[in-house]
Amino acid sequence: MHDLLKPGNLSRLSPKYQALAHASFNGSIPDFAQLRAYVVTPPGISPEWIHCLPIPFALLHPARIPRAPNRDIHNVDLAVEALTFLRTTHRPEAPAWPDLWPRAWAWIDFLHAHRKSYTPHSREPIWRFLLRLVGVWVTHPPTAQLIRNTAGVRRIIIYAWKAIIDSTPTFEPENLFVTLQLQYLSEFFRHVMDLKVAANFAEVIDEAGGLAGFASLVTRTIKFCIPGLREAYSIPQNSAFFVQFLSLMIEFEDVDSIHSALVSTGIVPVFTSALKAFSLSMANDPPANLCEKNNILCMFKILQDLLYVSPSSKSIADALGSGLLSAIVSAVVICKDFDKTHLESSPLCFLLANTLPTSTVYHSVVSVMNETLSKTHTIAMLSSSFKKSHLCNWWHFFVNLAEERIRIMKRIESKEEDSKKACYNLECGLIEKKEEFRRCSQCLYAYYCSRECQKQDWKDGGHREACPSIRQFRQKHHDLSPRSSSFLRAVVHQEDEHDRSDGIPSMAFRLAPMKENPPDNPLVVVFDHTGIGLFTKASTAREEREKDVNGEVLWDEHISRVQRSRGRMELHLIMVRDGKRKRRYMFPQRSKHSVVQDRLSDAAKRPDASLHDAVDAMFEERKKGEAIHE
């Protein structure tokens, strides 16, 4: 027991208080209330206060806790009076807090558990007593460690958190009462929440009503803390709670289940709006300090974690629609003084160099970019600070790619080019406008130029056997809408056209996989969009099939068709990023003639010295041909 808590300490009180103090120590509620009124007089606290600590220490003894509040109402009222007294706690008595905490917690836990059958005379909920105590006591490291190790404390803190958020529609800085409660809550988050400990995490999730309940609470908290997101870009001066709240969200970094639950509650547009508001406010105000700059980068890190949740294309589109590009431009200006190494290792750079560029293969993302990119790019180019930033080159890298994908999207939507199909009957292979074809009503994948070709393919081409597998596969992998699939097909086709324009080197790289490979292991051209920039390589069906652990490609059907195509089909595999994973989509290329594959096969069999002439001739033939992607 600390000396401040020993009964003899009461003798240090002024004589006029000693009688009240001894009566309070012996259980007189009126005397204790009167003593408290004397020593806790606004605007300050009397120096006598610290000598009264033996009273709450004695009255909060766990042995006084009854089985139920109505069994011993006097001791319960005394405990509430003692907790009320301790709410005026301050730093000078901090050494006594480790001894006070176990007793205060035991009573708070009891009173909260029986909150429906007992209400203090002040009508004040018990969680406010806890919030006030821990909000101050966690600043004392030994006491903070005790609180951190106390089972159940997070349960009541979550209850308090929900009560604060439910108390008023939005946070108003003028509401000093709520401001103070948020301040205490932020101290708890900062010092003792510790959600990386499994037991702590389980306690929080249980009180919040499961992952979905906790995610909903987080999303509602952002809306609560940052009012007027849609109307203005100014941030309340008292935004300290939100900043501390970010530290709590950082603890979710390795908890994928939390991120998924958060995204399902619609947090991405809400959080992006808050990020935009903070960024614009700091960019327009006097220069931000180092802490504020790091807070902005911290917010981008949190957003990046949210954008990792699959399907990431929806989250990225939501973020773009909520002002992500404006937030990026403002953040680049705010962090203009950071050195190149710091910036290029930041989440801000990762968004510009990886997340956003790799998302331009999705129609839904490019559609939103089309609405926001031009205006934001103009604003960025008008800022001298932005143009001097080390991230300006990465911005141009992203913008150039996005503009190229926007042109593809507009070309598809404007019908500048007729959508074409190749007859699925490999004995025919006719390439014509899509409108001229009929589709298999079962698998909804195979297109035919005539009823005769459809019958022939069903009878002799293997579609009778393949159709059920294709149908089951498409039912399982139905993540791409027809519009998204058409856009992705157009992206692959354009990449292949670029590949053609590269000349001989682009043809020659296909030769290595074709040497010494049997017909059941055909060439696969891989267009990898999962990293910084496009990476194209030649591989084999066997090699890529081994990597396809999730079975995202119907390999048997594609390999079989290549074997029967007589050189008029080449397998083109596109790899795209979906959050933390890579997704694979196969778009076989169909040609009217087999000359390209014939020349490739011929070149692969020749001595190295004669490869150049063979590839040169093959390339000239290829330029004359017509090819589409299924």
TrEMBL record:
It holds the Pfam family zf-MYND. Residues 425-467 form the MYND-type domain. The keyword Zinc applies. One of its GO terms (molecular function) is zinc ion binding. Keywords: Metal-binding, Zinc, Zinc-finger. This is MYND-type domain-containing protein. It comes from Favolaschia claudopus.
